[in-house]
Design brief:
Helix content: 40-55%
Number of strands: 4
Number of helices: 12
Structural class: mainly alpha
Distance between the termini: 18 Å
Shape: globular
Strand content: under 5%
Bound molecules: iron/sulfur cluster
Order of helices and strands: HHHEHHHEEHHHEHHH
């Protein structure tokens, strides 16, 4: 036992060490673990520090998605998931994402033979959805422009917002889609894991001095298509997607704890003393 450490402290350190080992093999555990989140934030931040890689923004998004998929693959299974291929009701929502995810999608689309058609569809979607929230989009049956024959045409690079939602009731989805339902029971564990991954990603971006606010997908993609140097400018610190910024989320954006949590993750990932906070000792 380290000198001065109480049995409880030593036990917590042991659990933190095990969490980091487990993170390396299986992703984040399905419960709050600062040790694992520090390790994940550090891994993501390391990608942004590769100054000689002009694609490190998009690469960060791939690591963000892979990390989430790894965590999900090792999470306890949920037998009640109602989602299946070809069911696309949730693809009529407002999709918020991070700037690196925009670069990953823009890069994927730009490399396709039908890139121009996809860019035109995105521009139309951006125009039709400008200023609309999820409810208004649902009311208008405004589908995501990436949806093709009820399947996601960018499945491999779809944002974490799409990866992290699993309905537990097809009937509830149908009722909401038809305009007479309010709540869809979701797989809570996936939402918890998504929240932890979101915060590690936001901390990695914030720690590099870049904008970590959520942006709306179609507006941001339109900007990225129009400016081939958007990734370089964002990496240089310019807030290139300011016009696509999501409306502040009253649950998170105005909560001072959210920024404090990111600052704790930034410090922990760098092995520095943590700012005073209510979660760690
Ligand atoms: S990106 Fe793909 S999964 Fe996400 S809303 Fe659009 S079509 Fe659906």
């Amino acid at each position: 036992m380290a000198q001065g450490a109480s049995p409880n402290q030593e036990e917590r350190r042991r659990i933190a060490r095990e969490d980091v080992e487990r993170y390396r093999a299986e992703g984040l555990p399905p419960r709050l673990s600062f040790g694992a989140m520090f390790a994940h934030t550090a891994a993501l931040r390391g990608i942004l520090e590769r100054q000689d890689d002009p694609e490190r923004g998009a690469r960060l998004a791939h690591a963000f998605h892979e990390g989430f998929e790894r965590s999900m693959a090792h999470a306890p299974r949920e037998s009640r998931i109602a989602c299946s291929a070809g069911c696309s009701m949730c693809c009529h929502n407002l999709i918020l994402l991070t700037a690196p995810e925009v670069f990953a999608i823009a890069g994927e689309i730009a490399g396709r033979e039908d890139a121009q058609a996809s860019m035109t569809a995105v521009a139309r979607g951006a125009l039709a959805g400008k200023g609309l929230d999820s409810d208004a989009r649902l009311e208008r049956r405004l589908a995501c422009p990436m949806l093709a024959s009820d399947l996601c045409s960018i499945y491999g690079v779809r944002p974490i917002a799409c990866r992290g939602f699993f309905s537990l009731s097809l009937e509830a989805c149908q009722a909401v889609f038809a305009g007479h339902g309010e709540n869809i029971p979701a797989w809570r564990l996936a939402m918890v894991l998504r929240g932890m991954h979101d915060r590690c990603m936001a901390a990695a971006i914030k720690g590099a001095g870049l904008s970590h606010r959520s942006i709306e997908m179609t507006q941001a993609l339109t900007t990225a298509f129009a400016a081939p140097d958007a990734q370089a400018r964002w990496l240089a610190g310019e807030d290139v997607f300011a016009a696509a910024m999501a409306e502040p989320d009253p649950e998170h954006d105005d909560d001072p704890h959210e920024e404090l949590l990111l600052d704790v993750l930034i410090a922990g990932a760098a092995g520095k003393p943590l700012p005073e906070n209510p979660w760690t000792e």
